[in-house]
């Protein structure tokens, strides 16, 4: 996520992980590049690729840097990354700062060899684990909890028969949300936290296997989606095929997938745990129309994650659906507007209203969330300045009331507008004619029988969480 997008949405995205193992010995760096490109929406601060040759010297070659995938990598750098097994990562910093040292994958060399690790998520016990390691002599090169995971895997490997056994032993110590893609010199390992908070899936193209945060990245490399990695599952991919270890799994009723993957994070064309993201957002829009009907002339969505929910609202209500905004897709890292006073101009750089679409009309505007309220207020002003006579706001998530400790950059309570204001007060503050949030009990409509985490709305965390914000604990 660019600094501008953080200003514009008020919400930080997660990270994306991708791995590839070509059993025929061909270089995988180009495939990892395209996989990361498809996951760019999950992290835009830094990226990296690490590869190894399973038949050669079995050392890792890596490149990582700050910026988008196409800024860090080009044809020449990809050609230098020779190897048929590798992992990649795109990062948005939910823990640790924006610096090149914190870019992933992490490559560690230790007495048993080497590992490359890419991680999406946050640990809730990272601070205590890090202190424990420091007191036994560990020296950290980064400020991210992913390095804590790497250290524990490396230490457990000293007393483990295999790398996957070391991963399992490390999983018994770490608590929180994680999807891991790990490469040893001869195998690729994927691991998902027992709650299933972070997504991870498997793909295959001929004799090449893939692991990815979302199925859209599997499609991007022209591979076939095989299945999701199950909550608590460790999959090991070797020349002999795929092996599964479910010993870390927990009962299904305790699983807690992040509901915001379906509301906002995931790309619209992805499929996570059997649920099509597009369909989930259509159902969210229909639920909003059912709960908060209104007389209006046009339903519009705020790009990008509000668009499909707006279509669902339109289908249920019978109010026509229209495109009221032009989104500038070429806003890069140049436009940095970190101050509150600059937020309005930042929104106008990113979004513009199409006046002839909204002039003289009563508008239903659908968006995925309201965090601080500033962005929503600016967009409503833009719509009314362009001639909209009424703006009725519908939000496809419930009000944010609690911080997230699992990798979603939901701000602290003091910054959450819903934490200290009623819905009516928020409506007045943003200038909407009416305001309706998704009702808590209707979230299940989006995902059917899947168990999910809605702690940022309810405060019902699936595990014990720290009593303080840990997102910048290591900086």
From TrEMBL:
Keywords: 4Fe-4S, Glutamine amidotransferase, Glycosyltransferase, Iron, Iron-sulfur, Magnesium, Metal-binding, Purine biosynthesis, Transferase. Its EC number is 2.4.2.14. Pathway: Purine metabolism; IMP biosynthesis via de novo pathway; N(1)-(5-phospho-D-ribosyl)glycinamide from 5-phospho-alpha-D-ribose 1-diphosphate: step 1/2. It is an enzyme of class 2 (transferase). It comes from the Bacteria. [4Fe-4S] cluster binds at residues 258, 404, 453, 456. GO terms for molecular function: amidophosphoribosyltransferase activity. Residues 15-240 form the Glutamine amidotransferase type-2 domain. Binds 1 Mg(2+) ion per subunit. It catalyses: 5-phospho-beta-D-ribosylamine + L-glutamate + diphosphate = 5-phospho-alpha-D-ribose 1-diphosphate + L-glutamine + H2O. The keyword 4Fe-4S applies. The keyword Iron applies. Its cofactor is Mg(2+); [4Fe-4S] cluster. The active site is at 15 (nucleophile). Pfam families: GATase_7, Pribosyltran. CDD domains: GPATase_N (cd00715), PRTases_typeI (cd06223). SUPFAM superfamilies: N-terminal nucleophile aminohydrolases (Ntn hydrolases), PRTase-like. HAMAP family: PurF. Catalyzes the formation of phosphoribosylamine from phosphoribosylpyrophosphate (PRPP) and glutamine. In the C-terminal section; belongs to the purine/pyrimidine phosphoribosyltransferase family. This is Amidophosphoribosyltransferase. It comes from Ruminococcus turbiniformis. The lineage of its organism: Bacteria, Bacillati, Bacillota, Clostridia, Eubacteriales. The gene is purF.
